[in-house]
Design a protein that fits this description.
Length: 392
Amino acid sequence: MVLSMRQASLLCLGLFLYLLGMQLALAASSSGQDEAKRLEETRREIKRLTGELSGVRDQQSRLREELKASEKQIGAVSITLKQLAGKQRMKAGELSSLLERRRAAESMLTRQRDALERQIVAAYMMGHEGRMQIIFNQQDPATLGRMLHYYDYFNRARMEQMELIRASLAEIDVLQSGIATEQTELDRLSAERAGQIEVLDASRQTRQETLAKLDTEIKSREQKIASLKQDERSLSDLVSKLREALRDMPVDLPDGVPFAKLKGKLPWPVKGKLAARYGSSRGETEKLTWRGIVIDANEGDDVHAVYNGRVVFADWMRGFGMLVIIDHGGGYMSLYGHNQSLYKAVGDAVRKGETIATVGNSGGSNKPGLYFELRYNGVPDNPSPWLVATSR
């Protein structure tokens, strides 16, 4: 039996809600062993249902699955690259510190050698005589005592400088070993990052090829409009099912301020220029309008939660790419689409301003940016009046 696109979408939604229900049941269980057993059963059931879904997709659905796989790969590799860049910065800082310490140790060694040289010259000026010679050559006891005092002083000073020089040389050897170790690790990280960049480039190439095939499949203007409408319906269905599943689960708001009282006070989720306003035409037809706003931003920029809440969806979704949905309680949800990478998972608590994703162009978008929606009881609400005034 071949399912329609809408039936396949609803089946996917049912699969997601089934998984969410099982997770909630696991959270309510008092036995750790029972939770582990149920989790394993859930994983097996998901695998079985996923297997049933395979083979019922049309050409467009298969292409969208390929797009999903490549964009999720891009997101995962982007996170790895960001982590590697952080490690590189840390190692470069450690290497810089070691090099600075070595320069300081070498400078100290130079001063110590100069001091030893001056002491040797002073000893030479005294006649470079041994202690016994000084005793036998001096007739005046006062002069003898003074000469012996000078002799012992310069001798101790020479020995101390020699010990300091040896210590400085040993310190330089240790620092040099540390520098070599850090440099090796830095080189390894650079090689690993270069490899990940190759993977990223390959994933992006695959994505472009898949988008080109999709564009060939969706030929007419009517087909494109129908596809966009299907995307919107799927998202609305998802939000409705989420609201139903989470109806009895209150959201923890530490500061106790209800979301409804925050109109005009929410921070922008990302820095950038407003590219599409709520209610404006989507370009394909005047009847199809934006249910949220689009903010142009640089690829890889951090996306922030506009307020405290709980993540109820964090995955790829057709038309919206890597999507995060946060439940803020009181019927309010915020949605963040077209991300490159996701940093949060379902069930995670988030705080206002916390990084939840990075800007991308997933979901088939042509340029990087963030799609941002607010919904109240499942119905889209213009997000602009909720955000703080800005000169955008």
